[in-house]
Amino acid sequence: MMATPTANIERERLLKLAEEYRERGYEVLFHPNLEDLPDFLKSYRPDMIVRLGKESVVIAVKSRSSLNSSSTQYLRNLAQAVAENPGWRFELVMTNPEDAVYLPKAEGTLQEPEIEARLQVAKQLVAQQHLESAMLYSWSLVEATLRIVGEKEDLSLTRLQPLFLVKKLATERVISQSYHVRSINHDMIGRNTTPIK
Length: 197
Description:
By secondary structure, the protein is of the alpha+beta class. Helix content is 49%, strand content 12%. The protein has 6 helices and 4 strands. A 4-stranded mixed β-sheet has the order 1-2-3-4, with helices on both faces. The longest helix has 22 residues. It starts with a helix and ends in a 7-residue tail after the last helix. The relative contact order is 0.09.
């Protein structure tokens, strides 16, 4: 199976971190095997563990786009497990934090033919009653479409987060204000917060 652009970005960042830690004298365990993990980590799959003397660091590398409620809960549980053990610490490294500036044509952004082809996958998911998966998959296609619209309208897009795109497109009157409010409500409902009325 081919790795996604997000997985590739995370892997590249992880490899760079491994190199940085090695240069500082740390022993690096890249995707450690079960037998390399202490008992308190046996139910987790850390991206990397680094050790130097009495210090051990469990490292997870994530992109904003790869975070969802289950992965966030997993990271919280992992951080808690690590925090309960002296000499260990947890480090979460984000590849694209919220305040980073993104280029309008981000690598891996879907283009129109790919979006049209992937709509068929979303339809198949609906037909197979995988409604949550269909909704998430469809929303990613909406996000890609918003990026394309922004590019075609020659808008100055400093970030590619969905909420920023919707606000920018509504402000520039490319999409209607009612679509903007519905999109914000969807975005907030997806994050278990109170929607805008």
